[in-house]
Design brief:
The chain contains 6 helices and 9 strands; from the N terminus they run ααββαβαβαββαβββ. The chain is an alpha/beta fold. The chain has a domain of about 150 residues: Rossmann fold, CATH 3.40.50. S-adenosylmethionine binds next to β2, α4 and β4.
């Protein structure tokens, strides 16, 4: 029993090594991000029935009509945050908790907001089991951010919204970065926005993507 468990863990570690090689071939350069992907057991954030897909570059259902994003997209977005390790990060859309675990390896603190209570509860449990003690999970509408904890050095939005939520822009520290998908339902531009001054923001499109809806006061209304 014990030996089959350790064989499975070894297999997962090899699969993560292959995944990291693929991500690197596809242009992910940040060694800290690649190391975090290698060290974070993505299968633990999935329902056991999907463990076989954990290290493929594909999104996977996590229940409640939501998904954990494909590792390639997660790595690209994480790299775009240019994290050095000292940052206070806000994540909108906790989902499975996998992205929050990666951010925990790369930043100082992470506040992650999820609108669906059961997902927040599950993510919180697994994050705590994994010792991610600098991640806090909160249930609520992440489009409103968390004014009581602002400003944030980095904000990562992991659901697709119609436009940049103004409350999030106002909670970004000067010099800070926000990364997230914005545009039409079903297809968005991946934006990287920098707050250059109190009222000055620069933005660049770093890719195209397809995320589940960002639902909330400064997002889409629920269908
Ligand atoms: N980052 C997640 C992970 O690592 O598993 C994947 C996020 S999933 C693609 C998008 C998540 O955003 C869903 O769990 C969804 O419920 C959540 N969501 C959508 N709108 C939200 C909002 N306004 N506030 C907080 N969470 C929201």
């Amino acid at each position: 029993m014990e030996s089959s468990r350790s064989a499975a863990l070894e297999e997962f570690a090899l699969a993560r090594e292959r995944l990291v090689r693929r991500l690197s071939e596809r242009g992910v350069r940040d060694e800290r991000v690649l190391k975090a992907v290698y060290e974070t057991p993505r299968h633990r954030f999935l329902p056991e029935a999907f463990w076989g897909q954990a290290y493929k570059d594909t999104p996977v259902p996590i229940g409640e009509g939501q998904t954990i994003s494909a590792p390639g997209v997660v790595a690209t977005m994480t790299e775009a945050l240019s994290l050095a390790g000292h940052e206070q990060v806000l994540e909108v859309g906790t989902g499975s908790g996998y992205q929050a675990a990666l951010l925990h390896s790369l930043a100082a603190t992470v506040l992650s907001i999820e609108r669906i209570p059961v997902l927040a509860e599950q993510a919180e449990a697994i994050l705590s089991e994994m010792g991610c003690d600098r991640v806090k999970v909160r249930v609520g509408d992440g489009t409103q951010g968390a004014a009581d904890c602002a400003p944030f050095d980095r904000i990562l939005v992991t659901a697709g919204g119609p436009e940049l939520p103004l409350p999030l822009l106002s909670q970004l520290a000067i010099g800070g970065l926000l990364v997230g998908p914005f545009g039409r339902r079903g297809e968005q531009e991946l934006l990287r926005v920098q707050r250059a001054g109190a009222q000055r923001f620069t933005r660049e499109v770093i890719g195209r993507c397809r995320f589940v809806d960002l639902i909330g006061e400064a997002g889409w209304s629920a269908r």
